[in-house]
Amino acid sequence: LHFMNRVWDSYKDIESVFQNTSELKKYSTTEIENFHSIVTLAQLEISLSLKAIYYAKCKSEKSHLIKRGLLVLYEIKMALDKLNPVFKKIKDDYPELENEFKEITIIIKQAKRRIADEPRIMHIRNNISAHINTNFLENYKYLETVDLEEDIDLIIRMKLILNELNNFLLKVCINQLKK
Fold this sequence. Notes:
Layout: H1 2-18, H2 21-25, H3 31-55, H4 59-82, H5 84-93, H6 98-116, H7 119-129, H8 136-145, H9 148-178
Helix pairs in contact: 1-3, 3-4, 3-9, 4-6, 4-7, 4-9, 6-9, 7-8
């Protein structure tokens, strides 16, 4: 409950920024700030998934919400892949953050590998969540594979990894201001 209350408070802080699109422009003036904003958005998506799972009334509702959370993880992995050139540029442009860069690189690689190694995530993306599958059994088979504890743990771990990545990107943004 405490974790979910903190997630909700974070959402309320971010909500005020999203109400004015002209405010958003100032958060994406550089590739690094855009990267930081995308990671923040990913954190919000995961937080909302976790909040919905927390408030779900039954196992089948949680299973469907976990499906959405796992789809968000897939999309985060894809976004991180696309942002990889920006990430490499950070390494070159900010040698003073070399140690932090190495640490976060290892964490990101492990997270992306964990998502890529989970066959259900790709299956959900290709056959269930991204489309309305006309084969009911395909949807039903997914529900049989849900492990509430394991799946929620995976989503929470990714949220924590994104927190670390965002903290690193904030350091980069601060260093960018110093230059």
